[in-house]
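Handout, section B. The chain below has 169 residues.
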Amino acid sequence: MTTITLMFFAVTLAPLLALPTAAWARLMSTADLVIVEKSERKLHLVSNGAVFRSYDISLGKNPVGHKVYKGDGRTPEGRYYLDWRNPQSRFHKSIHISYPNEQDRERAERLGRAPGGYIMIHGIPNKYRRAPELFEGMDWTEGCIAVSNEDMEEIWQLVADNTPIEIYP
């Protein structure tokens, strides 16, 4: 390589290599599908049929089975949409999952219960931002899907509103 070629790469690529993770995320693909595997505690971002990012997750305190009613501590299963976001959440950002759908409402109604709602993908609680290790490796939410704050920053950048999410057992 010539000196001029090396200088070109140094000037062009060096700033890119110094970007924080969230900035790199903006340069990558955007997800056209989010897949959650509850039993594996994984959330995957998919673009054009291929997984391009995966994250460790925490779930509701009672993670086995589909969410049936408010307060059951379960994370829903099925196909929903990520329909709105909250940058001022009491957690480190949050993206809403469109639970409950009509079937979820009917199931809860048959039991004489409310289906619940406000199921989100979010980071850790803001009041614990300096102690994220308190939440690692355990299911602690009320039914939401929790990720690290750093992972939430990436997901926030890579997932648009109205992206479908498929949540599997």
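Note. The radius of gyration is 19 Å. Compare this with the example in section A.
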